[in-house]
């Protein structure tokens, strides 16, 4: 399968940024995010999800608990996200892993999201010291395998993967298209070791300092199917241009 046969996706991860006003700007400007082939997803902070329910783009949470309900102050479940209109949830983001989330916990979260019909945007990526020691392939594999073991390879038909090298997130140090492509191809080869068809069909997004000025070159790589966008997703015009770059793949 050519990259063009996988549907490109661009997801905006607002992190703990934005406001009700920014949410309204995006909802009113939805036309700028309306494209023929790219799926556009916004992942705002939980309190702003309600602003987007009638918007014409996809909606996602930035995290979910692995349990369906219970005494977990401050947490939300995948089922709750689904109930308020989310289609996606970012899981295993490096900023969550830095707060102590293990790959096993991420695997449990992925399983819970799949159970309620949310599409996990499952994040992997190595920190700088690992990259400098050339350990990034093994590191990323060690993040992938617990999730494959937990949910099974076929579940990746219902998932999106995001490769986000930690050293590229929020730093302006975007991975070069070749560096990103190399890891994306590697991720696909790990999945292909389980099931070739699943590996060819899964969308793998790149994340880490994607901007309108570098999106086209990144997204044109054979195994890069769009992006997970942090800082540049907070400005409608910039984000729209990034989505346009992915739409050009379709
Ligand atoms: P960035 O963040 O685009 O601001 O680097 C990406 C992410 O963390 O998802």
Secondary structure blueprint with pairings:
Blueprint (H helix, E strand, L loop, with lengths): L8 E5 L6 H9 L10 E5 L14 E4 L16 H6 L4 E4 L2 H4 L5 H13 L3 E6 L3 H5 L3 H16 L8 E4 L13 H16 L3 H6 L1 E5 L4 H8 L6 E4 L6 H12 L3
Parallel strand pairs: 1-2, 1-8, 2-3, 3-4, 4-5, 5-6, 6-7, 7-8
The structure holds 2-phosphoglycolic acid.
Strand content: 5-15%
Return residue spans where pLDDT drops below 50 for at least 5 consecutive residues: none
Can you list the ligands bound to this structure? 2-phosphoglycolic acid
Give the overall silhouette: globular
Strand order of the largest sheet: 1-2-3-4-5-6-7-8
The total beta strand count reads: 8
- Main β sheet profile: 8 strands, parallel, barrel
Q: Would you tell me the structural class of the helices and strands?
A: alpha/beta
Query: Taking Cα atoms only, what radius of gyration do you get, to the nearest Å?
Result: 17 Å
Mean pLDDT, all residues:
96
Description:
With 250 residues, this protein is α/β, with parallel strands linked by helices. It is built from 10 helices and 8 strands. The protein has helices spanning 20-28, 78-83, 94-97, 103-115, 128-132, 136-151, 177-192, 196-201, 212-219, 236-247; strands at residues 9-13, 39-43, 58-61, 88-91, 119-124, 160-163, 203-207, 226-229. An 8-stranded parallel beta barrel has the order 1-2-3-4-5-6-7-8, surrounded by 5 helices. The chain is globular, with a radius of gyration of 17 Å. Bound molecules: 2-phosphoglycolic acid (PGA). The site of 2-phosphoglycolic acid (PGA) has 13 residues, from strand 8. The site of 2-phosphoglycolic acid has 13 residues, from strand 8.
